Amino acid sequence: MLAGPKLAGPKLAGAALLCLGLAGCASPDEVTGALASPSPMRAAAVANAPSPRPAAPARAAAPATASTHPEMTPQALARAEANFDRCIASLEPMARAQGVSPAGFRRYTAGLKPDMGIMDKLQTQPEFTRTTGDYVTMLVSETRITRGREAMAQNAAVFEAVGRTYGVDPYVVAAIWGIETNYGSARGSYPVLQATGTLACVGRRQPYFRDEFVAALRILDKGDIPETHLRGSWAGAFGLTQFMPTAFQRDAVDFDGDGHRNVVDSVADAMGSTAAKLKRGGWVAGRSWGYEVDLPRGFDYLLADKKLKKPMREWWALGVRRPDGRAMPGGDEMAFLLLPAGAKGPAFLMTDNFKAILSYNPADAYALAIGHLADRIRGGGPFVQPWPEDARALSRLERTELQQRLASRGYDVGTHDGALGQKTRAAVREYQVSAGLVPDGLASDEVLASLRGRDGT
């Protein structure tokens, strides 16, 4: 295989990114605006074209709240900490069944202690208060674009080989590197074995992290990555493109041919492994991730539905065009319409390759940032349609309030937890139709204000 040249040059200064493995990542429901809806609302959707409206008054975001999970109480945490050694020892049969040697298990778990500070991060859930536009604009910065071009130039042979081997767009692979760790400068410093071991025996996600802990043991026991180099986020993601240990076991490849799958120290292994993951996620060679489009007047906004894929020729027949007269892709290529900021923001036709990016991180805003950064590194320009200047992400308390108000009116929103799942988004759209609002499905200030007004509060 290809010998992997190492990234040279100065490190890029900047803030840590939002998504390092599981740490701080928004769920897809918190950032997406593409919703499913029943067909009886279609006529109302066409009639309600977007119109300018004054900015809603700003309200302070609600603070994040601590978990009330029984495994997260002070008493439960103290018991788990006291029982840590016994818990780790109890995982040896599971580890041995998955190929960890007895000597390796003893070596890497000897003296292992929990990092109880991780519980503070697990217990206080970060509030996602950025709009999709803010998120994408923050991540697709001119500095990150420039640095991406430099990184690809310095590792041109690696990216050429990755594209040839997997049929994945190398610019998308580079964009993942840039957004996950700022091209290697923001990887995290937590020992992965300690982090996953702590979470495997303490707190509310123990079953999930037991698999991650055993996978981390397998990495060390096989010798793919030295223990002192296996560091990452508090949740256990590591390497240039932030693999969780189980994802590493599933997708990592020895792309530089040195006998080790080292996504920490080898650019070739990290980029090859990232491309392999995207290919497994369904990447189709020769296609874009998606296209910015303009929508015609009187457009039926109920067509903005992830489940509603149409051939490009049908979108064309509906009056959908690319900005500035750019050519539409092939007529048989399937795509769905995404409105990440509602009817007032940019619109996109997304291909199956967008869903392949979502296999890396299932948040629409993340996948949109990856695709856009890839295009900008390639030499493309910014989006033509600006993001709405008056947009504000609702706080979790406001989202919960919105769900409660919708439920009181008979809409099925699912659990009233502030997470905007499919049921809530469908309910928002149904309410928008009934209230004479544009049914773009966006849980916005406008929708919440309308509900409050109708409830007289």
Give structural notes.
Helix 8 (142-154) packs across helix 17, helix 9 crosses helix 10 (170-181) and helix 13 (245-251) crosses helix 14 (267-280). Among the domains are: 290-361, no CATH class; 394-455, Muramoyl-pentapeptide Carboxypeptidase, domain 1 (Orthogonal Bundle). By secondary structure, the chain is mainly alpha-helical. Residues 3-66 have low confidence and may be disordered. The termini are far apart. It is globular, with a radius of gyration of 23 Å. It has a four-stranded antiparallel beta sheet. The chain has a two-stranded antiparallel ribbon with strand order 1-2. The protein has 20 helices and six strands.
Outline: globular
Cα distance spanning the termini: 66 Å
Structural class: mainly alpha
DSSP strand tally: 6
Provide a compact summary of the structure:
This is Lytic murein transglycosylase. Helices cover 44% and strands 4% of the residues.
